[in-house]
Write a structure and sequence with these properties.
alpha/beta, TIM Barrel, Rossmann fold, 27 strands, 21% strand
Length: 687
């Protein structure tokens, strides 16, 4: 599929840091001057200075403006924009302008349009109307990226290449004929032979055995359940194909501008299922992420924290770029949420607290036309005499005050394992229950640790776990032998490891690990489950023992037996499994332990158990903040300085134990920091 490869002579050490020309944290957003007349563009730069903006993304959707007809190029507006921004001291993440093909291209080459599983064609008229695997679209996209690089590669405003935009956002899975051919090529490369493919897919079932790779299709709409491994491999292929598209554009940019770093904006959150971002991260010079809170979620600030921690995990702990979020309401949710006073600042600085060195928004100026005209922006429709604009300026001042935080890192001694193939596998059809949602279990444990004040890294199960005292693996349905061994090694090295229900069930081909559940983790946990007992809607059972005081559980229970040396911590009080284990613990070498949670506990039960295992692992903070007050530290490279972020999500003033210099309101703190209701304080601590 790849048209070119990165030159062997490419030297990653020669790539300048994206923030090299910035004095501190980056601040800005998507800037779309092509939507506005000249007078507005001139005002934009003056307002950017006023707000403290120093970094913007440009030309993300500029292709049709640059090339309104094939071969006719208009660079004047973009030349002027780049020069004007440079003169104002503003750096640019310049896009390849390929995020949406112009109408003339899809009319000339309708074969590049993607399809759904029912073969519905997704036409031009919105955005991202292209198949990433189609060679015609690839060639046009590469040509546009080359033009951008040749024209602006040496421009002094250029800090970073922004490749395409939110790749896979609207079309994470393409079922076109071109994608089908690319899928077959991917399968040939993965399996080598038809015998290996047939074995991996279990095609002896339902007369699905393949006699030729040419007979293989994507999992199109079928009379009943499609082959589950076919579905799983199509998920893998689709993520790889989207990444391959990024790589091809990036490799071209590296050929032409080897000194300029590249990225694309990921969508790391509990809602984005389509791309395995852990496999994408090594291909990015800096990880960038877009994140939007869900209006219907009263705990949206907790999900934001999770997504930020996971973005940091994807980035391997390095600082990252928040490329997009919203100043207030978005336009694309069923009922959109206007942010409350202080919420924009809290959201922004929560990302910074958890590793972001840039705070950016979609977009700079709220559009007057188009599908996103009701999406909030830094400059709203009503102009400067507005709450949104005043908050935009306030945030700029806050980020200037926090300039010294840039480059510091978050340190955590607790980790939650998150795995995209496990997510894809756990939510396949024809399972014991269709009500299971993988992110729900992950977020339940994350929320419990967030409430307890425990800072968490969100990492893949194959990550280096040696630095963690507590490792939680929620619903790790699909797991490789290597990843299962990695978790066992953490427990044997002294960590407290927690595995929850429906984990270790299948291998990477979605084949059940025979001999009893939880398959890959039976030896580590010292348990064997003989059968799942899933619960019906509104059906619950009571669980008690250890830290669980008559807690409630729903969705899932298991008939579990323990091995010698494994302790039953809590049992079911009622239901079909009354008296049988619900939570177990097995001691391991070096003082570690392996816990199994065979049911879905309610919030109180999860919280109680999370505090118990966090206490056993010695990761609870010495002095926890009040409920609803988020505290996170970023650390300098030498470990001598920490910056404590205290974010008060409550309606009451709160106190946090710390000493040092407060950077936002100013002043010394001697032992106790007062954080007013709904606000943020940041203290520089000496250690």
């Amino acid at each position: 599929m790849r048209r070119r490869t990165t030159p062997e002579a490419f030297d990653p050490t020669a790539v300048r840091p994206w923030s090299a020309r910035l004095p501190g944290l980056a601040y800005g957003g998507d800037y779309n001057p092509e939507q506005w007349p000249q007078a507005t563009r001139l005002e934009d730069v003056e307002l950017m200075r006023k707000a403290g903006v120093n970094f913007v993304s440009v030309a993300i959707f500029g292709w049709a403006t640059i090339e309104p007809r094939e071969g006719e190029l208009d660079w004047a507006w973009l030349d002027e924009t780049m020069d004007r921004l440079h003169d104002a001291g503003i750096q640019v993440a310049l896009a390849t302008a390929t995020a949406s093909p112009p109408p003339w291209l899809t009319r000339k080459h309708p074969e590049i349009l993607p399809r759904l599983a029912d073969e519905t064609v997704l036409h031009q008229g919105g955005r991202q109307a292209y198949s990433v695997t189609h060679p015609v679209h690839r060639e046009y996209a590469l040509r546009m990226a080359a033009r951008m690089a040749e024209r602006y590669g040496e421009h002094p405003a250029l800090a970073l290449w922004h490749v395409d935009n939110e790749i896979g956002c609207h079309v994470p899975r393409d079922y076109s004929d071109t994608a089908a051919g690319a899928f077959r090529d991917w399968l040939r490369a993965r399996y080598g032979t038809l015998d290996a493919l047939n074995a991996a897919w279990g095609t002896a079932f339902w007369s699905q055995r393949y006699g030729s790779f040419d007979d293989v299709l994507p999992p199109l709409v079928a009379p009943t359940y499609a082959n589950p491994t076919q579905q799983l491999d199509f998920d893998r292929f689709s993520s790889d194909s989207l990444l391959d598209y990024y790589r091809d554009l990036r490799d071209l940019l590296r050929e032409l501008t080897p000194h300029v770093p590249t990225t694309t904006n990921l969508m790391v959150s509990s809602a984005t299922k389509g791309m395995d971002y852990f496999s994408w991260a090594p291909e990015l010079d800096v990880v960038a992420n877009d994140h939007y809170t869900a209006a219907e979620n009263p705990d949206r600030h907790v999900e934001l924290a999770f997504s930020a921690d996971m973005t940091r995990g994807v980035a391997g702990g390095d600082p990252w770029i928040l490329m997009e979020h919203s100043t207030s309401a978005v336009n694309w949710q069923p009922r959109n949420h206007t942010k409350t006073p202080g919420e924009m600042l809290r959201n922004s600085l929560a990302h910074v607290a958890r590793g972001a060195d840039a705070v950016m928004f979609f977009q700079w100026r709220q559009s007057a036309a188009g599908a996103e005209k009701y999406h909030s922006a830094m400059v709203p429709h009503a102009g400067q005499d507005t709450d949104v604009w005043r908050r935009t300026v306030e945030l700029g001042r806050a980020l200037e005050a926090l300039a010294e935080v840039r480059g510091s890192r978050v340190e955590a001694r607790a980790a939650i394992c998150f795995d995209y193939p496990a997510w894809w596998g756990a939510e396949l059809d024809s399972h014991p229950t269709q009500a299971l949602r993988y992110p729900d279990e992950v977020l339940a444990w994350y929320r419990a640790l967030w409430d307890a004040g425990v800072t968490v890294d969100v990492v893949r199960p194959g990550a280096d776990l040696s630095g963690y005292r507590l490792v939680i693996a929620p619903t790790l349905y699909l797991v490789t032998d290597a990843d299962a061994a990695n978790l066992a090694a953490a427990a044997d090295a002294g960590a407290t490891v927690v595995v929850t229900y429906f984990s270790g069930i299948v291998d990477e081909h979605d084949h059940v690990r025979l001999g009893g559940y939880p398959g890959a983790f039976r030896e580590l946990l010292g348990v064997r489950t003989e059968e799942f007992y899933t619960l019906q809607v509104d059906e619950t059972v009571r669980v008690s023992g250890g830290p669980l005081d008559a807690s409630s559980a729903d969705l899932w229970t298991e008939k579990t037996h323990v091995s010698p040396g494994t302790e039953v911590v809590a049992s079911y009080d009622d239901g079909q499994l009354a008296g049988l284990p619900a939570v177990t613990r097995r001691p391991t070498t070096a003082g570690g332990s392996a816990w199994y949670v065979a049911t879905r506990l309610d919030g109180a039960g999860t919280a109680a158990l999370a505090r118990t295992v966090a206490g056993a692992a010695q990761v609870l903070p010495a002095e926890a903040a009040a409920d609803g007050v988020e505290t996170v530290r970023r650390w300098s490279a030498d470990g001598r300085t920490a910056w404590l972020f205290a974010i008060n999500h409550t309606a009451d003033d709160a106190k946090v134990a710390t000493s040092g210099v407060e950077l936002l309101a100013g002043g010394d703190v001697d032992g106790t920091l007062v954080v007013p209701a709904g606000t943020v304080r940041v203290v520089r601590e000496a250690h």
